[in-house]
Design a protein that fits this description.
With 533 residues, the chain is mainly alpha-helical. The chain is built from 20 helices and no strands.
Length: 533
């Protein structure tokens, strides 16, 4: 392939996306933390209501089709069918465009009805401002799928950073100016969302320009001129995409229904109508922190699908399992310490990032502790779904995700309706949901795959390291509290000391294997440097 389209190694591509994700999340923190202070819990609730609705359409447009594109382009690339890569992209782009136009039109025309459905009528302006982003993100997904299927994660990474920068600058600026001029938190929340919409527009333009150049270079190489009809290409694309989309969209729809249910329960059975919007705003802010570590798992899922597909196309099943097991190890190295850290240090983190005090701090800390434990199980589910999708079992994650989502709604309806539990029931339902999906996925993989990858055996060492790290974080935090050190010093000190201990334990326990290192650029040198055999 041409130089611009050369495949990166599996973990190398994941590393590129992870770096971009880190930058995006830092920018996102610089965006959402001051935004919460600027528009308050009430405005933040409107902001997240718009995002809840947008996320449903986002799942429909960006979940199944990019995975299908990635698998099909990886397979075509492995067989040298460059002309078929172009056919796959053109077919997928047309489908994306159709979905985007329908999604944007529906969200724009029904913004007031959607806001009323979510029991937050004043969120209609934020929903309206976010609606064009559905079309743009659909087009972005087509462009990213083209590159990701070839193992090139750089365009995706750069475009994500562009989106984040626009969201920060335009979003905060618009929220500040609108709030200053109107004093309305609802309109200020809409202004904050404008940054997201403009960021997706700029990202669309950037990706389209570099894809045209990459496509022209790709077409100069034609080792295998085989190309299938648009109809057969679309049929295969949709056969992979539809079940994945149904599963992801189904869970997101359930999550949106769940949000409506717990708001209804808060205002009704729990008797907290006056406080419901504020409680939702606090919970949504905790979810923002929860989503931070989970976002670093997405690069793994994006990279693992074409990597496993390539090995399966070549009938190298042992290598495919090696990639899957490596992905689980890397996932656990990221998710487990984050999960334990958020649970143990929830109080100083929420005091520092959310500015919460007294009763609000107690509530936020409790919510964050429970969501902290959710981090690992959510991450495990994401990786297992990607592994099954790469093997062609696209319907199984649909069933497990929807079953877990239904259980979540039932549990939340019961717990949130109890005045003594109220909003705390929401993260409890989320935790039970992901634990259940994890167990179902493990069972399904052992039933469906002749020689399933060994996943659980790759988790116990990271679990030991994370547990010991959590103990250190707890002790350091208590020591700093006893010494009456400033909050920033206490929080940062606990994280840094615990992080150093964790890195040391990873090396001592030899959690990273030589096979993992070989999946990185210059992996042999890294293995020798770390003395890994």
């Amino acid at each position: 392939m041409a130089k611009t389209n050369q495949k990166q190694t599996f973990l190398g591509g994941a590393a590129v996306l992870a770096v971009a994700t880190a930058i995006v999340k830092i920018i996102g923190a610089c965006y959402k933390i001051p935004l919460n202070q600027l528009i308050g819990d009430e405005g933040f609730g409107y902001f997240n209501t718009a995002y809840d609705i947008y996320s449903v359409l986002l799942m429909v447009s960006t979940t199944g089709l990019p995975v299908a594109m990635s698998r099909m382009i990886s397979e075509a690339g492995t067989l040298g069918r460059t002309r078929q890569i172009r056919r796959i992209f053109q077919t997928a782009r047309l489908v994306f465009l159709t979905i985007g136009l329908v999604g944007t039109g529906g969200m724009m025309l029904l913004c007031r009805q959607l806001a009323a459905m979510m029991s937050q009528e004043l969120s209609w302006f934020a929903i309206l401002c976010l609606s064009p982003a559905v079309l743009f993100i659909c087009l972005i997904s087509a462009e990213r799928g083209f590159f990701q299927g070839q193992g090139n994660m750089i365009p995706t990474s750069v475009s994500q950073v562009f989106e984040a920068v626009f969201k920060l600058v335009v979003g905060l600026g618009a929220a500040y100016l609108i709030n200053k001029k109107t004093g309305s938190m609802a309109y200020a929340a809409g202004g904050a969302i404008l940054g997201v919409t403009l960021g997706t527009l700029f990202s669309t333009i950037y990706l389209a320009l570099i894809r045209r150049r990459a496509m022209a270079e790709l077409m100069t190489e034609c080792p295998d001129p085989t190309v299938f009809s648009r109809r057969s290409t679309a049929k295969k694309l949709l056969a992979i995409a539809i079940p994945i989309t149904l599963g992801a969209a189904g869970l997101q729809i359930i999550t949106t229904i769940d949000a409506a249910v717990y708001m209804y329960q808060l205002k009704g059975a729990a008797g907290m109508a006056a406080e419901a919007d504020r409680l939702k705003g606090i919970y949504n802010f905790c979810q923002t922190i929860f989503n931070l570590p989970c976002a670093f798992i997405t690069p793994l899922t994006i990279s693992v699908i074409p990597a496993i597909t390539e090995q399966l196309t070549l009938r190298h099943r042992k290598s495919a399992n090696m990639v899957a097991e490596s992905a689980v190890r890397v996932m656990s190295l990221i998710a487990m310490p984050c999960s334990v850290g958020l649970a143990v240090l929830s109080e100083p983190i929420m005091r520092l990032l959310g500015g919460y005090t007294e009763a609000r701090l107690t509530l936020a800390s409790t919510l964050m502790s429970i969501l902290g434990f959710c981090v690992f199980f959510n991450s495990f589910v994401l990786v297992m779904n990607a592994i099954m999708q790469a093997h062609g079992y696209v319907y199984t994650p649909v069933v497990t995700m929807i079953l877990g989502g239904i259980v979540k709604i039932i549990i939340n309806a019961i717990l949130v309706g109890n005045p003594k539990i109220n909003i705390v029931g929401a993260p409890i339902g989320t935790l039970i949901c992901y634990v259940m999906i994890s167990c179902l996925n493990l069972w399904a993989m052992h039933r469906l795959l002749r020689r399933p990858p060994r996943l659980l055996i790759n988790l116990y060492k990271p679990a030991i390291a994370a547990a010991l790290m959590g103990g250190v974080a707890f002790l350091v935090n208590r020591l700093c509290l006893a010494l009456e050190l400033p909050l920033l010093v206490r929080t940062a000190g606990s994280i840094l000391v615990a992080g150093a201990v964790y890195v040391g334990l990873v090396l001592v326990l030899r959690i990273i294997t030589a096979d993992d290192c070989r999946l990185l650029p210059k992996g042999d040198k890294i293995a020798r440097l770390l003395r890994i055999q």
